[in-house]
Amino acid sequence: MSLDRVDGWVKVKGTAPYSAEYAFENLVHAVLITSTIAKGFISNMNSKDAEAVPGVLAVISHLNSPGVPGYGEAKQPAERANMGTAFRVFFDNLIYFNGQPVAMVVAESWEQANYAASLVKIEYEIEKHRTDFEANMQHAAIAQGVLKNKNSPFQDYVRGNPAAIHDAKVKIEATYTIPTQHHQPMEPHAIIAVWEGADKLTIYDKNQGVKSAQGNLAQAFKLPRENVKVNAQFIGGAFGSGIRVWPHTVAAVLAAKKLNRPVKLVLGRELMFTSVGYRPYTVQKVAIGADENGVLSAIAHEGIGQTSAYEEHLERTILASRAMYACPNVSTKYKLLSLDVNTPTWMRGPGDATGMFALESALDELAYALEMDPLDMRLRNYAESDPERNLPWSAKGLRECYELGAEKFGWKNHTLEPRSMQKDGMFVGYGVASSLYGFHRHLSKAKAIMLASGSVVVQSATMDIGPGTGTAMTSIAAKVLGISPKKIRFDLGDSSLPDAPGQNGSSTIPSVGSAVHMACEALKKKLAELAAAVPGLGSKDIPYQDILKYHNLPQVEVTEESKSGPERDQYSMYSFGCHFVEVHVNPVTGEVRVKRVVTCADVGKIINYKTARSQSIGGVVGGIGMALMEASVMDHRYGRYINNDFANYHIPVHTDIPQIDVIYVDKPDTLVNPIGSKGLGEIAIVGVAAAVANAVFHATGKRIRELPITVEKLV
Ligand code: MOS
């Protein structure tokens, strides 16, 4: 099936309401004031002049915050995880990072609030900060949370005999670096917070999980869950920035509480750099060895990721190296480096996009050292079962991905030697990289309602941050019920709907898609039973509305719950893929142009081809940005980002993006769930940066191990 987006029209017509666009009488506007130092404390704050500005209603800070009841009791940062973040907004005068919210001005208009914010005088006691990753790497350590948890996947890992690397015929040892990169959704984060009395809270908030936000805020404000309503129906991209409840959200809720009026807060692009996480700066060391036939003998993968001083953020950086290839001797190590910065968070393909840049670059280096085709190298080490968990894969169509992709791309048309291909005065390079991402199926519920009119409403508190969730769910429902998608409406993004996970970890289709499938199956069954009771007609071919009419029912509804079965422990479940990239590099200027991409994925059954394809293209675009452009640059004298706008933080635009062909194996993985479909969002980006870097090496003979691959690194 390949439906157009069910919400396409409301989006392009501008009638779809985003978080900042709900209208309320009495709505007031908030502007955040953020710290200008990276570490220390506020010694004095004077808001008199600001308060005197016409229209200003309050200047809220640690001095007069109504307080978050949950903050006081949860003494340890880790205990505050269930309130969204460890950081406590307006709690005390301590400064943990430059850009930290320290006060908030609320006024009748945004202009008044913004002007008044400029009049708040804050004095700081400055302490020496550490923000420079490279200069502080010696302070990296295993996370406290990992030390305390024997079962943490981030414990040091050893399989076989890692010392085997010393006997390897060929080996590569190299360090790979990715800089801090920020999610750059078109829609900045925004919230409208509305209190109804002292104990009922509604927020219209850009986030990726209405149910988790509801739970976090209920914990923080000590409210019964059902007293907190979270609405996030339309979201203009997020890429992970909306997985948590961030301090600015709580700040707006506090302001609304203090003033007892609806408060709107919109983060400007600059604040997006310090308010909603980022892909952490990460340095990885990979040692990889093989015999003369290219058969891997050992992989050692160590990663150090950046985190804040007040919270540990862990990601899958080194994990892919355990499962990706058949290799008997593997070791991994993962450390964190605490710096005086805000906490990073998951960003598309979190951990794996970072880790696979290193692994897939190192494997490519090894292939060239052996004078072996990089694709052959990957095929030679194909893991027929999961070498980490010693389990069969539930399904793995990666071989088909390599084959279909290589065919479409014309991989065999290239000569292996670096710098051996030229076109129109440019060096031409071909690169390939693999991709994987773990499978996640969380508990999800869906309700399916057949109305007397014959129309169907399906509901679940799932999300759509952009991939087209409603469209995919409509496809699933239409297929099961055998009715036109036009007769189906899918409701999401509202915490009062049936329980569902947030949209993260590529889990939506596998989890919620299964629940929708099951709910529609159950609805069909219930209707068939009702039809069987219609005398003289039997159960065949009665229009659904006639069944309801006969029984004089206004509607028939069912709710079903979906969760992982025992197969989860018997099989290893992953999505797999690969990317083929052609780059042209200008030999004089070092400019890299991506000319073609063929991206392939085995994610089981494709639910809705059109939206799936868009998601794959989006992932490749993100990967090209990661490879060639994106880096958040900090001035370490102040611990402050200096390229915090779209003029200076470069992301790909149309002219940077070539033809992207998307290929799916499109065979159901019958072991993962009833729809046979696995996650697609993350593997779409995982490996892309390595494929680009590998193509750049093939074009130029220069191996760039530090992203992004900008011109000065190539000339
Ligand atoms: Mo994704 S980083 O789980 O939004």
From TrEMBL:
Q: Which Gene3D superfamilies match?
A: Aldehyde oxidase/xanthine dehydrogenase, a/b hammerhead (3.90.1170.50), Aldehyde oxidase/xanthine dehydrogenase, molybdopterin binding domain (3.30.365.10)
- Residue ranges spanning the membrane: these are none
InterPro entries associated with the record: Ald_Oxase/Xan_DH_a/b (IPR000674), Ald_Oxase/Xan_DH_a/b_sf (IPR036856), Ald_Oxase/xanthine_DH-like (IPR016208), AldOxase/xan_DH_MoCoBD1 (IPR008274), AldOxase/xan_DH_MoCoBD2 (IPR046867), AldOxase/xan_DH_Mopterin-bd_sf (IPR037165)
Output the Gene Ontology terms for molecular function: iron ion binding; oxidoreductase activity
Q: Boundaries of each Aldehyde oxidase/xanthine dehydrogenase a/b hammerhead domain copy?
A: 13-128
Its name, as the record gives it, is Xanthine dehydrogenase family protein molybdopterin-binding subunit
Lineage here is: Bacteria, Pseudomonadati, Bacteroidota, Cytophagia, Cytophagales
